[in-house]
Every structure is written in structure tokens, then in C-alpha cells.
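Can anyone check this?
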Amino acid sequence: MKDTNNQISQPGGGRITARILHPAHVASPSPCRGGFTLVELLVVGATIAILASLVLSAVNGGVEKSRQVKCTNNLRQIGMGIINCAKEDPDLQLPMVYNCTAPG
């Protein structure tokens, strides 16, 4: 760095040395900003909201599919139980229900 030393006299006889930098070496203002603009924050917020909605719809679809699988497995277990009972006791007859409404 090019610099020049200038000495300044004080009234009491002391001297102060001032360092003066050459204008070509003085740092220009930094292009860095201190924060985010409102538009940038809104774009990030909208992106997060879209991604969250996609994830939630996928999770809800998975929950519904798990309910369907659970129901199917329950029906299968009931069917297997009826078949096993029929194999154990061929004379066993399951009661037939004609009227499903509650009395009264």
C-alpha cells in the first residue's frame, strides 16, 4: 500500500503522525447487504408452504391406505376363523340373521 506520513505539530510541541492512504487503495463500499428484502422472505415462505402441503397430502394418502389395509386384514382374519371353525366341526351352523334392527 502506498501511504504517506504527515506529521502535524501540536501547540505543546509534540507531534502527531497521521497516516494518509492513497485514494486507489481506499476500500470501496461492500456490495454485501445487511438483511433480506420483503419479496425474498415472501418467496421463501411461499415455497415452504407449497412443500408442506405436498408432504401433508402424501401423509394423508398414506394414512387412508393404512386404514384400507387394516380393514382388509381384519376381514381376512374373520374369514380364516370361519373356515377353521367349519373344518373343526362340520356340523356347526352359523346363525343366520334376518332382522338386524334392535328391538323396541
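Reply from J.R.: I decoded it. The chain has one helix and two strands.
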